[in-house]
Write the structure tokens for this entry.
Amino acid sequence: MSKEIISVEEGSGNIFKDLEIPNPEEYLAKTRLALIIKGIVSESELTHEDAAKILDLNQSELSMLLDGLLDGFSIDYLFSLIRKLDCDVEIVVRGKPAYNTASEIEFSIPF
């Protein structure tokens, strides 16, 4: 039995950047917001039908959102959906150190 050598490269922490997708920070932010929405829906034990009504989405749109198909959703719109789920949204802007040229968007979830 021969031993195969497997090359491994450490990721950046943003899969979209690693895959060289344009606007990787936006894609990562939208993904995180969608996960927050999915978590709120799950924690609230809402049916998909009830969640769709609250969010003013049709079943197809809700499925796309919960499945992570986010090209049709803007960051602003995802924030508005979080508000429709009766959650506050707080945005904090901080300066970044001069040695770190990459911008990051972070989210914290209180549950």
Observations:
- The chain has five helices and no strands.
- The chain has a mean pLDDT of 87.
- Residues 26 and 32 are 10 Å apart (CA to CA).
- The helical segments are 15-18, 24-43, 48-55, 59-66, 75-84.
